[in-house]
Amino acid sequence: MVADPFQCPPLSRCERDRLMEKAHTACKLTVRNACAFAARYTLDSELHNDRTGRHATIHKGVDVDGDVPEAAMCARTHVRASLEEVANFFVLDTPAKCDAYSRVTGHLVQDKQSLYTLVAREAGLHFIGVNWMVAKTPIGLKARDFCYLEVHDEFTFIDRATQRVRRGWVRCMHSIPLPCCPSLEKSHGYVRSQFVRSGHIVLETARPGVLEYFNLLCGVTRRLGFTPVLAQDFVLRRHVSQILNLEEHFITQRLKTLLETPTTSFPNKDTIEYCSVCYHKFAWLSVKRQCRGCGDVLCTRCCAKWDVPLSETVISMMACQRCTRDGHSRDSSLPVSPVHSRFRLDAEDDEVEPRGPSDSDDALSPLGLHHMTFKGEEDDLALAAVSPFEWTLPSPQLLHL
Hints:
- This protein folds into 2 domains: 13-252 and 332-400, START domain (Alpha-D-Glucose-1,6-Bisphosphate, Chain A, domain 4, 2-Layer Sandwich); 264-325, Zinc/RING finger domain, C3HC4 (zinc finger) (Herpes Virus-1, 2-Layer Sandwich), CATH 3.30.40.10.
- The strands form 3 sheets. Strands 1, 2, 3, 4, 5, 6, 7, 8, 9, 10, 11, 16, 17 and 18 form a 14-stranded mixed sheet that branches. A two-stranded antiparallel sheet has the order 12-13.
- 20% of the residues lie in helices and 32% in strands.
- It is built from 7 helices and 18 strands.
- It is of the alpha+beta class.
- Mean pLDDT is 78; it is low at 327-372 and 375-401.
C-alpha cells in the first residue's frame, strides 16, 4: 500500500473541461468499438459456463483510435440482470462489494486512490473521476500502476430489428497522463502501464431482463523490449474471459432469498419417480436432487450445485434453472426522456452485429445500431464549447441535439 504519494492541486476550469472532453470521447469509442469488435476481428476462443449454461466468445484485435495501435480483446455474452443491477455492481463503495468485484472480475487490485471527482455519483448510473491504481500481474511480471479516467454513463440506442428505443450502460476506463501522478517505478517498482478505451458495456435486448454484455480490454501490460507478446495476450485473455462470472454472481445473490423458503411443504423425494424437468424415470439406484427453492425433485442433469456466500459462511444448495432465473420481470424497453439527452451518435452506415456461434440468445441481439444517445447530467456532462469529435473518427460524427 502507498500512503498518499500524490499531491494533486485543484483543477482549473480549462483543465476540468479538457478531462471531461477526453472522458466523453473515450466513453463513446469504447461502446462503438465493443459493438463492432466481432465483425472486424477473428474469433480467438469460446467459453461455456456449465452451471449457468451461458456461452461467450472472445475476439482478438487492435484498437487503432489512438496514436499507437494497442492489442485488444473483447468478450461477448448475455447476462440475466437489469441495467441498474450491473451499474450498482461496479460501484465499489463497501469492502463487501470490493471483494465481490475481485472474485467476479479476477482484477488483482493491490491499491487504488481517487485523484479527482469530475461528476459525483448522485445517481448510480453516472460518474466521472480520475483514479490511480496498482494491479498485480498473474504471471510473475512486475506490478503495474495506472492513472486513468473512469466513466459510468447511460445511453440509448435504436434496435434496428424492432425500431424500439433501448437503453445501455458503460463503465469506461481510459489511461491519461497527469503531472501530479508521476511514475513510481524507481521508488516502488511499479511499471506505469495503460489501458485505453476499455470497459464493460451492457445493452438491453428484446427479452426483458436479458442484457447483451461486452468486456473490452485494450493495452495493459506491453512494455516494448521487456514484455513478451505472449504474456500480454495471456493477460488480455485472462481478464476478458471472466465475463461469465457476472451472471453467476447475480444468481448467487438471488438464491439467498430461496433459503428463507420453508421446506415443510416439499415432497418426499423418495416417493418421486420422474424428474420434474426432463421427465426422465429414475432407476433404482438413480441419484435424486431436490431444488432448495421450489422443492422439485430433479435428476443430476437438470439442476446445479451453488455455493451461496452469506455474512460469515458459505452454504451449498441445489437449484433448478427456473429458480436461478426468477426475479427479473421489469420492462427493460423504456426509453430515456429526450429532454435529458445531450448528444447523439449517428451510425446508420455501421454494420455492428457481432454473431456468436451457437449462442441461443443471438436472435435477441440489439446490436444493429443506427443511433446512440448518451445521457448526461446538466452542465457537468456538457462538452463545454468544443466538441470532442472535431478530429476525424472511423465512424460518423457527433451531432448535438
